[in-house]
Amino acid sequence: MPLRVVVAGATGVVGRTLLPLLRDRGHHVTALVRHADRLDGAVAVDDVAVADVLDPPRLRRELARVEPEVVIDQTSGFGGAGQDEGLRRTARLRENGARNLVDAAVAVGARRIIGQSMTAAYRPHGHDVLDEDSPLWTEAPGCWGDAVRALAAMEEAVLTRPDIEGVALRYGALYGPDTQFAPGGAIHARVCGSELPLVDDGVGLTSFTHVEDAAGAVLELLASGEPGTYNVVDNEPAESAEWLPAYARMAGGPAPVSLTMDQARTQLDWLTVHQLTEQRGATNFRLRETLGWRPAWPSWREGFASLFGLWAA
Questions:
Q1: Average pLDDT value over all residues in the chain
Q2: What is the pLDDT of residue 69?
Q3: Which parts of the chain sit beneath pLDDT 70?
Q4: Ordered structural domains, the chain, with CATH
Q5: What is the DSSP string of the chain?
Q6: 164-207 per-position pLDDT tens digit
């Protein structure tokens, strides 16, 4: 059944992938953007709502005008920002913007809200691959800790309101066109510039999510599925010693150099060391078993190869 849907963060990598899929299914789609000129003519929508999620009165007025049944939050603060600044911006959006969006959605009578979270926020625990019941690492240090605490606040705002159905989608490392893994992106530049090394005895796990799979999971949960949290990741969490050299080869970059743990702590920022050495991957079992969802890109191997034109989809 067609729904009236608002997509916040419509100009982001997931939002741009999601908009045409929603319209293909017959939904009435409104893009919620801070500036109308951010949407180019290549992205077709039924309506545009211009409001900042950090401006509650304007946000509520725009949602009241378009009367959504479902509100989807895909906002991010990383556009054009470095790592620490991107984390600070995103933390503000997750904590304050998400609460404003939930309040506005409830006020205008929306029945479901879908928020964006991430599996990288899980607290490291041994060598486990983690599920949705695993705790978020809210006591993590620095900007990363601020970002995780903001995610936890966002999830609480989305999931605990009795007057709306809340869903939190925890994505893995997003890759695909226009992401940090694509040519010109931040990870691509670091790998090709020999700035992202391997760390001896590093067992950090990364779960990957193609932007098409992120958008596909939103579609699956638009009107069905129990409220709650879902990991949206591929089937193959990978150690940095596995995915990083493979990515470098496909990107045409040099083989990653190898550092000892002591060297890594001296030469790299704390978050990069954490990701390469102790971060844990996630399982998509709940989403697969409860909704029958299957990733279109079940492994990052094929996804990376497609990104660099090495895989015939």
A1: 92
A2: 98
A3: 40-42, 77-83, 312-313
A4: 4-179+208-236+282-297 (3.40.50.720)
A5: ---EEEEETTTSHHHHHHHHHHHHTT-EEEEEESSGGGS-TTS--SEEEE--TT-HHHHHHHHHHH--SEEEE---S-TT--HHHHHHHHHHIIIIIHHHHHHHHHHTT-SEEEEEEEGGGBPP-TTPPB-TTSPB-TT--HHHHHHHHHHHHHHHHHHS-TTSEEEEEEE-EEESTTSTTSTTSHHHHHHHTT-S-EETT---EE-EEEHHHHHHHHHHTSS-S-SEEEEE--S--EEHHHHHHHHHHHHT-PPPPEE-HHHHHHHS-HHHHHHHHT---B--HHHHHHH----SS-SHHHHHHHHTT----
A6: 999 999 999 999 999 999 999 999 999 999 999 999 877 899 99
